[in-house]
């Protein structure tokens, strides 16, 4: 969260509603370690990243839903045969994200 | 309990580079509950927020301080009341350790480039040179600290606080600065001591260090000539070569081209 702190503080000062996604767990090989974070405002501005660019698009969609519903949630991105055509990490690892509104 | 939102308190601590850990409940009705812990003094612990249960708060605060000391963020499992053997609750503990430190001895052009690259990588950078004409904040605007002093005197002060993740680079090229600086650097626990100079300078320096009682085992800690062999010529290229060596030394990786190796890219 340290890398996106300035953006978070600015958006907060402006009264923007913001969702934060954080990598909380990692299995196998993954590009970003637990603690990597990404923030999305209600009007779609983005700061930070949680992977090497593989899943950020899907995270934005989910983050906007978190802002719309107020429901915090876990989200997992990985790669298996079943999910070959779903959003995954090209490096073969699995990341677990926690997405929540910045309402604290 | 302070009335300031916990994020604002966290942001203030992070701005001041105070080590702090933030715990977040991920499951169940209390998902999102937060507990923040830091040490305002060596023998003092300050806990803010709550995960909704006193016993859970106590156990998580203790574990969060442990993760903070190790500089590690990760997921932990607990029972609803903090029971260690149960797994009903997942708690993410994010440790914001103080940034690693980089001490650069010698205020030269190579120093300027290294400051820039080290800042990109999140280091807290100190430039130290005994010559006040060169060691100025005007010349090193990106450095966190510019100290006009002899390196060994600075290290006598801050050396005991340095750890494995910290780095020292001796860039002076001048034996009257180099030798005492290297001797003082070897007394610290830093994970990297890089010393600039040609192979000839290095040979000469080895002799001078031996003269003042530095052992072969101690000399083996020195990365000299400094940096990886990527053919760096300019100060900026050299800075990249040095930072690459620091990363490779920390991770224990080969520093060979990934296209020439196989196996996982990330550990």
What keywords describe this structure?
heterodimer, A: 104 residues, alpha+beta, five-stranded antiparallel sheet, 5 strands, B: 267 residues, alpha/beta, Rossmann fold, 2 domains, six-stranded parallel sheet, 11 strands, 35% helix, elongated
Characterization of the model:
Chain A has one domain (2-101). Chain A contains two helices and five strands. Chain A has helices at 5-13, 56-69, and strands at residues 18-27, 37-41, 46-48, 73-77, 94-101. In chain A, a hairpin with a 4-residue loop joins strand 2 (37-41) and strand 3. Chain A starts with a helix and ends with a strand. Chain B has two domains: 6-96, no CATH class; 101-251, 3-Layer(aba) Sandwich (Rossmann fold), CATH 3.40.50. Chain B is 35% helix and 22% strand. Chain B is built from eight helices and eleven strands. Chain B has helices at residues 6-15, 54-70, 109-120, 151-158, 175-186, 199-211, 216-219, 235-251, and strands spanning 20-25, 34-41, 44-49, 74-78, 89-96, 101-105, 124-129, 145-148, 167-170, 192-195, 222-223. In chain B, a hairpin with a 2-residue loop joins strand 2 and strand 3. Classes of the chains: A alpha+beta (104), B alpha/beta (267). The A-B interface holds A 1-2, 5, 8-9, 12, 22, 24-25, 29-31, 33-35, 72, 74, 91, 93, 96, 98, 100, 102, 104 and B 5-7, 10-11, 14-15, 24, 26-27, 31-32, 34, 73-75, 90, 92, 94-96, 122, 264-266.
Task: Itemize the secondary structure elements and their pairings.
The complex is a heterodimer of chains A (104) and B (267).
Chain A: H1 5-13, E1 18-27, E2 37-41, E3 46-48, H2 56-69, E4 73-77, E5 94-101
Chain B: H1 6-15, E1 20-25, E2 34-41, E3 44-49, H2 54-70, E4 74-78, E5 89-96, E6 101-105, H3 109-120, E7 124-129, E8 145-148, H4 151-158, E9 167-170, H5 175-186, E10 192-195, H6 199-211, H7 216-219, E11 222-223, H8 235-251
Parallel strand pairs in B: 6-7, 6-9, 7-8, 9-10, 10-11
Antiparallel strand pairs in B: 1-2, 1-5, 2-3, 4-5
Helix pairs in contact in B: 3-8, 4-5
């Amino acid at each position: 969260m340290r890398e996106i702190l300035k953006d978070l503080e600015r958006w907060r000062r402006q009264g923007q509603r913001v969702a934060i996604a954080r990598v909380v767990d990692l299995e196998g090989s993954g590009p970003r370690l637990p603690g990597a974070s990404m923030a999305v405002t209600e009007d779609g501005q983005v700061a930070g990243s949680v992977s090497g660019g593989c899943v950020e698009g899907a995270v934005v969609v989910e983050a906007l839903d978190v802002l719309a519903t107020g429901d915090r949630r876990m989200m997992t991105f990985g790669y298996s045969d079943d999910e070959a055509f779903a959003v995954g990490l090209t490096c073969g690892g699995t990341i677990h994200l926690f997405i929540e509104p910045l309402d604290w | 309990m302070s009335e300031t939102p916990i994020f604002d308190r966290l942001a203030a601590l992070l701005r001041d580079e105070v080590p702090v850990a933030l715990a977040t409940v991920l499951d169940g009705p209390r998902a999102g509950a937060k507990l923040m812990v830091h040490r305002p003094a060596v023998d003092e612990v300050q806990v803010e927020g709550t995960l909704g249960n006193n016993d859970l708060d106590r156990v998580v605060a203790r574990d969060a301080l442990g993760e903070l000391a190790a500089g590690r963020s990760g997921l932990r499992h607990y029972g609803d009341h903090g029971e260690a053997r149960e797994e009903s609750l997942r708690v993410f503990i994010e440790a914001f350790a103080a940034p690693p430190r980089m001490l650069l001895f010698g205020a030269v052009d190579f120093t300027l480039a290294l400051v820039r690259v080290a800042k990109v990588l999140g280091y807290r950078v100190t430039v130290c040179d005994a010559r006040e004409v060169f060691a100025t904040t005007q010349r090193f605007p990106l450095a966190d600290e510019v100290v006009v002093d002899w390196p060994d005197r600075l290290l006598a002060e801050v050396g005991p606080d340095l750890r494995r993740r910290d780095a020292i680079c001796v860039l002076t090229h001048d034996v009257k600065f180099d030798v005492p600086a290297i001797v003082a650097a070897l007394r610290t626990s830093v994970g990297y001591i890089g010393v600039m100079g040609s192979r000839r300078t290095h040979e000469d320096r080895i002799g001078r260090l031996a003269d003042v009682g530095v052992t072969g085992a101690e000399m083996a800690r020195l990365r000299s000539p400094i940096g990886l062999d990527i053919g760096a010529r300019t100060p900026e290229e050299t800075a990249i070569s040095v930072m690459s060596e620091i990363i490779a030394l920390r991770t224990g990786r080969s520093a060979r081209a990934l296209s020439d190796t196989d196996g996982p890219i990330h550990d």
